[in-house]
Amino acid sequence: MQNYESIELIVRESRRDVQKKARRNLMLAAATGQTLDTADLAKARGMVVRERENSIFSDAWPLLAAVFVLIGLAAGRNPTWLALGIVLLLIIGVSYVWKNLSLLGVTYERSFDRTRVFPGETITMTLTVGNHKPLPLTWLQFQDELPIVPGEQDEIARLASEMAGKHVYQNTFSLHGREKTQRHTTLVFSRRGYYKLGPVTYRSGDIFTLFTRDRQHQYIDTLVVYPQIWPLSELGLPAKEPFGDMRVRRSLFTDPIKTQGIRDYQPQDRFRDVHWKATARRGHLQTKVYDPSVGMTMAVFLNVATFAKHWMGFNPDLLERAISVAASIVNFGVQQKWAVGVYANGTVPNSDQPIRILPGRSPEQINHLLEGLAVVTEFATGSIEKMILRESPSLPWAATVVLVTAVVTDEIMITLLRLKEAGRRVVLISLAEDAPPTFGDILTYHVPISAPAFQTDQRSRTVTEAALSAIPVPKPVALDPVALDTETAATL
Length: 492
Prior knowledge:
alpha/beta; Immunoglobulin-like; Rossmann fold; 3 domains; five-stranded antiparallel β-sheet; about 35% helix
C-alpha cells in the first residue's frame, strides 16, 4: 500500500525545486545582462501552479521521416521521397521550438472600473493580453475562473455556472509579435458577498497545432458587493430621530476642542477649564464655555442566527434581509456624522473570527462598515447576547446599542434589559415573523417581510440614491465676515 503522506512531500519538494531553479535562472540572467524570462519570474513567485503539455505528436513521426529519407536515397535520390522526409522533420523541429517559445513573454491582466459595488450595479472588466516577443502566436487561449457568468453569455452557460458555483470564461486570441490587445466584458452581481476571480490558465502551441502547452497561474482578484441599502422609511423605521430624541443627550456633553465663549467661574467648574488670560484682564476667575457635542456613537450588533440556537442552521433569505437592515442603519448613522461601529457574531470567509469594527468617524469608515457586512457569513461563532455583554464595556457610555436580529429569544431580551438598567441607550430591531414583546422602555421596531423595501425588486433609482434621499440635507447659510469678527473679538 502506498504512503500518501510521502507522495505529498515529494510533490511539495518538487515545487520547491522548481522555484529554486527559477531563481537561479533569474540571478544568472541578471548577472549576464540578459532579458529576464517572465516564466521564471512567475515560477519564482509561486504563481505557476501547474504546467503540462498535450500533443498529437507521435514518437513514430521522426522514424517515419527517416524512412522517407532512406527510401528516397535508395530510389536514386528520389526528390519526392526526400522532400517528404525533410519537410516532415522540419515541421517537427519548428513545431517543437515554437511550442517552447509560445508562452514566453505572454501577459494577462484584469482591470476594473470599480471593485466595490452594490447589488445589481455593473462592473466593467477589461482584459489586457500582450505578446512581448517577436514570435507571433496563431492561437492563444485563456481560461479564467469567474464566480459568475459575464453579461454577454447565454442562459445555458448561466444555469451551468449556477449549478457548478463557478464559470470558466474562455477567450482566444491571435497576436502578432510585440502586440497588445484588450477585451471588455461586464459583471453584474445580484447578491452581496466577497468574490474571487482566478486562477487563470494559459494555453498555446505551435502553428501546426501539433503541440499544446498549458500553464496555470494563481492570479487572483477580489470584488466586494455591498449589502442592499434602503431608506429607513421603506423599512418601516422613522426617518427622523429613529433612535429616540437626542436633544437632551446632546446637551449633557461638550466638545473640549471647540470654545464657545467665557463666563464667571462657578464652584462646580473644573480647574483646568479656567481661562487665565480673561481672568487676568477682568480681575476675577473666568471659565471657558464649550460647544455642546453634536456627535453620537452607535454600535450596531448583527445576529446572523435565524433560529433560536445558532447551531440549528439558517434561513438564507432572512439572513440577507437582516444584513440589509443593518447596512441601512449604518449608512444612516454615517450620513448623520455619527461614530458608527459594527459587531456581528458571523465570521469572514475562511476564518473563525467574528466581525468587529470599532466606532469611528473617519471618511473611510463607511467603506469598512459595508465591507464587513458584505463578507459576513452565516457561520456563528457564538450567541449574540454573549457578544453584546463582551463588547459593551469598551463602548463609550453615551453610545447607543442597536441590535438587528431575525429571532428574539429570552436570553436576548434579558441581556438588553440588563444594559438598559445599567443606563445604556438600547434599540431592538426585529425581523421575526411576529412582533417582539415590549419590555420596559426599550425602543423596539419590527421590520416584517411585508415591508416595502423587501417587496420591491426593480427600482428606477440606484440603491445609493434611494438611501440618501431619506436623509435631510441642510441648506447653505450665508456667513457675514463682519459679524464673525465681532463674535471672535467678544470671546477673547
